[in-house]
Task: structure prediction
Amino acid sequence: MLVFSTPVHGYGNNGSFDWLLATNGLYWLKPSNHGGVTSQLGIMKYHNPLYLSHLTSQDLAIQLAIWFNRVFYSQRYFNLEFLGAVYLVLYVGSIFLFLPGTVGSATTTERLLFSWISRDRTR
Result:
């Protein structure tokens, strides 16, 4: 839910996220002065000199987010929250597909045992 709040804190930048956005036709409108992430990006209208000929799963997610952004928000500006929403749907969908395979037709006791074994032990 951090992507849906402003300003976004905790953004570590090694340049690969900017490069990935640029290869998909997005660019930062202005640098952030408040220590967070600017959630508004521009969509390249004409030629993209960084366009790659190969397709990755991240490119598919970004292109899907750009499509949703163009339908529901703007043709010129990209809101980073659409990318967060696409990743959230993919994440929840993967959990939905993963859990029946791990638990299957187990009884309630077996499900409780499985959840106890796989709990977060870092706290």
